[in-house]
Recover the amino acids of this structure.
């Protein structure tokens, strides 16, 4: 095992840099898909919007929603492609209004609990276009679902993690959840719910099981005008960015491993970009201020987005709105990260602007092949409603400022046997279900967690239940730490203090990490330190079991996920 670590370290620290050498394990977009992608004209269809291609979910009762997970087969994601079968959350309306492969939004009120059910009406087994690795799933080729509210402050029965029931929900089964939307933990924010099936999250999300969950409050009303002085109504636009590959027959393409005998691939990267479930769309805007709510819904691609001309003012992220706007040049969003952004198009009447994706700057590191084009923005010349004219000086949200941690936990991120067909990843040298739960914070306490990245790539680390403060990142000698502590065959165990191997001072968080987060980029060569308060929703009795994991969903499935259990005080 040691040899493979050494080789990976060479990839990481060698003069040549990592990307080209890392790719064989990531599986390139296939030639079949590239031939299709190259023929799709860009910017020939409008991006779906809430009420116009995205369904705003209809309740089935007071504060109640009844979803089914269904396969849709008749939607065209591009005019030149045959219809693409995909999976969707149906609110009971039949989804006649859903245009693309992302097309559902729940709008709730902060402080008002919602009850939801999800009934599995998908095929009993996976269709041919979804390549299951039956070594990773509990019941082979059977479709077993588990809906998780990403960013949700919920009890563990409603969390949608494997501890609810490890086999998940099969055909005809109903998952029933309560989302308390409790304050102050759950302010106005953009969350999302998506499938979390054990060993199949990457496939079920790829197939389409993802939807927006928007919380409002008395400030962030979604209307215009509002007390914050930000755009609302048609001038607030959710943008969910996802990369995909296509087969000639219109089906989504998910490659299997190049390695004989293996199915699972380490990262899925598309060669076509979808926004709100449509291929390379355009967005028409008026020359005035807009609010974009951006979610990176990719399986593995880290986005670095800009608009060319107009300035970007970020007003919030994963955990809701901040206390003040921050100017950003590029939005660097790893999978599951969100950015709430104000953009003023008033100086660009008649312009055609491009939303572009760039290679993220170091120390963010990803083996993703380039995919630059995202969406065209067509600025008109007429303003039908002027709206806010300037960026607000302050906002009614929060900066993150937690105190008095009771402990520091060191969590290692390991890559095992990268040149073997059986390669995988883990945390703390343990598989997901290996041994007892090792992370056991006490309810009501604050803890620091340090992600010790011993791989060559950035891992977006997501924690269920809590939002956290990003304290900073400290460079360290990963090689020396690993050589000193690589006791187990499965990498470096957790809990070993890496501070003797630090090579410089802690760097402060990026300005875009100002508020509370639920997903943080753990970059290679750095110790990434976060701080969280492990509270439980009112009425929830400890112990409660959740998970934390890498949100590159291929990594999560094999096997960069571990449980944590919130214990009762005393
Ligand atoms: Cu990862």
């Amino acid at each position: 095992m040691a040899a493979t670590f050494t080789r990976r370290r060479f990839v990481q620290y060698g003069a040549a840099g990592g990307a080209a050498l890392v790719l064989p394990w990531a599986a390139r977009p296939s030639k079949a898909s590239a031939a299709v992608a190259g023929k799709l004209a860009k910017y020939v269809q409008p991006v779906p919007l809430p009420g116009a291609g995205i369904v705003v979910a209809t309740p089935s009762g007071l504060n109640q929603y009844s979803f089914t997970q269904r396969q849709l087969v008749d939607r065209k994601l591009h005019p030149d492609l045959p219809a693409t079968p995909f999976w969707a959350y149906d609110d009971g309306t039949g989804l006649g209004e859903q245009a693309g492969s992302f097309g559902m939004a729940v709008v709730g009120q902060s402080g008002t609990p919602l009850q939801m059910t999800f009934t599995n009406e998908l095929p009993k087994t996976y269709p041919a276009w979804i390549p299951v690795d039956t070594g990773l799933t509990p019941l082979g080729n059977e479709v077993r679902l588990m809906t998780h509210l990403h960013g949700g402050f919920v009890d563990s029965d409603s969390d949608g993690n494997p501890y609810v029931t490890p086999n998940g929900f099969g055909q005809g089964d109903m998952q029933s959840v309560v989302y308390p939307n409790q304050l102050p933990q759950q302010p106005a924010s953009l969350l999302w719910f998506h499938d979390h099936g054990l060993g199949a999250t990457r496939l079920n999300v790829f197939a389409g099981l993802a939807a927006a969950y928007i919380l409002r409050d008395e400030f962030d009303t979604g209307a215009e005008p509002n007390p914050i002085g930000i755009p609302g109504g048609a001038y607030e636009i959710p943008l969910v960015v996802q990369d995909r590959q296509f087969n000639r027959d219109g089906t989504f393409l998910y490659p299997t491993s190049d390695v004989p005998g293996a199915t699972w691939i380490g990262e899925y990267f598309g060669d076509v970009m979808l926004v709100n479930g449509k291929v390379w769309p355009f967005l028409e805007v008026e020359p005035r201020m807009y609010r974009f709510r951006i979610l990176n819904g990719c399986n593995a691609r880290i986005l670095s987005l800009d608009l060319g001309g107009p300035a970007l003012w970020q007003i919030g992220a994963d955990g809701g709105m901040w206390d003040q706007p921050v100017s950003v040049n590029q939005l660097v969003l790893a999978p599951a990260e969100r950015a709430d952004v104000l953009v003023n198009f008033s100086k660009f009447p008649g312009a055609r602007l491009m939303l572009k994706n760039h290679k993220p700057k170091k120390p963010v590191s990803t083996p993703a092949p380039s995919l630059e084009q995202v969406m065209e923005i067509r600025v008109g010349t007429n303003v039908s409603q002027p709206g806010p004219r300037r960026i607000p000086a302050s906002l009614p949200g929060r900066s993150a400022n937690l105190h008095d941690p009771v402990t520091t936990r060191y969590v290692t991120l390991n890559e095992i046997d990268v040149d073997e067909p059986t390669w995988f990843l883990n945390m703390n040298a343990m598989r997901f279900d290996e041994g007892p739960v090792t992370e056991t914070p006490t309810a009501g306490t604050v803890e620091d967690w340090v992600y010790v990245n011993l791989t060559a790539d950035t891992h977006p680390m997501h924690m269920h239940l809590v939002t956290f403060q990003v304290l900073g990142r400290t460079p360290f000698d990963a090689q020396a730490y690993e050589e000193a502590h690589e006791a187990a065959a499965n990498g470096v165990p957790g809990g070993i203090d890496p501070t003797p191997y630090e090579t410089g001072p802690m760097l402060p968080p990026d300005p875009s990490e100002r508020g509370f987060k639920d997903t943080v980029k753990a970059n290679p060569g750095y110790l990434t330190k976060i701080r969280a308060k492990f509270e439980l929703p009112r009425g929830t009795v400890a112990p409660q079991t959740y998970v934390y994991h890498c949100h590159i969903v291929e990594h999560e499935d094999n096997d960069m996920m571990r449980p944590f259990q919130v214990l009762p005080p005393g």
